[in-house]
Amino acid sequence: MINEEQVKKLLKIAKNLKILYVEDDINLQNNMLNILENFFSDIYVADNGKEGLDIFKDNINTESNFDIVISDLDMPEIDGFEMCSQILETKPDQKIIITTAFATKENINKLVEQNIEVLKVLEKPIKMNQFIIILLELLKK
How many domains, in total, are found in the chain? Predict the structure, then answer.
């Protein structure tokens, strides 16, 4: 369980970070945006992997790259596996959090096989406590 001090710490750290959130399910996207907007002020949203990759590439040579990419795996046009793979080819140290309703051994193995190094996999529906703990761990690095 998280405490008030942890939330305050996250609020202080996260307010200046740039986030790319990629999710094709509009209801999940809106719910997650409600959570993200509590912590981050600079959030870019994509509806599929192709759009996410385009937004990432458009911002890669700017002054402020994305601090964190949060992405679903099962999406149209380009899935999350391919998008994350291409992102890591461009920026190998990119911090990535995967959100999926299918955190199966098969999907985890596919990430490993494709050398997609993600920092965390969050199973949907996302629980606020779990998400905050993962963000705190991620931002310590």
Answer: 1
